[in-house]
Write a structure and sequence with these properties.
Blueprint (H helix, E strand, L loop, with lengths): L2 H4 L3 H13 L14 E5 L16 E5 H25 L2 H13 L5 H13 L2 H18 L10
Antiparallel strand pairs: 1-2
Length: 150
């Protein structure tokens, strides 16, 4: 059975529907819910059938994001690997790898929220933000002549 036949197999169709429902029928990259959606294998495992993959290795993408992923992934992985080799030692790469493994945030708003949560729980950053905030208030409270306004 070739790959296109496997994608018509009822076992894949069932798995595909499960992933589409999990991802709320929305592209997990651009959040498009109007275009045709594809269930994408994040990586392939030799000898495994498409329907035998664990759910965490499958993601819903729209056709455009899927095409971009398919066309650019290998080049971007090569660039990343080259930069890792040039700029990091093995221990650094191990730390980065573990960090990515633990990172469950995928989308920018979640990353920003996580950064803010970390920043706001750090006393040094809290003090710096307070200082900057009050300096900004002082600056905004002065008119063009440098006099304080009320």
């Amino acid at each position: 059975m070739d790959y296109s036949e496997k994608l018509r197999d009822p076992r894949w169709q069932k798995k595909r529907l499960e992933i589409l429902e999990r991802d709320e029928w929305t592209c997990q990259n651009c959040f498009d819910s109007e275009s045709t959606l594809v269930v994408h294998h994040k990586k392939y495992i030799k000898g495994k059938e498409p329907w035998d993959y664990p759910n965490e290795l499958l993601i819903t993408l729209c056709e455009n994001c899927h095409e971009f992923e398919r066309d650019n992934r290998q080049e971007y992985e090569s660039l990343l690997l080259e930069n890792l080799k040039l700029n990091f030692l093995a221990e650094d790469v191990a730390s980065l790898s573990w960090g990515f493994h633990c990172l469950t945030l995928v989308h920018s708003p979640e990353v920003v929220a996580s950064i803010l949560e970390w920043a706001l729980s750090t006393p040094e950053i809290q003090m710096m933000l307070k200082k900057l905030f009050f300096e900004d208030l002082k600056t905004k409270g002065r008119n063009k002549n440098g006099k304080t306004t009320t």
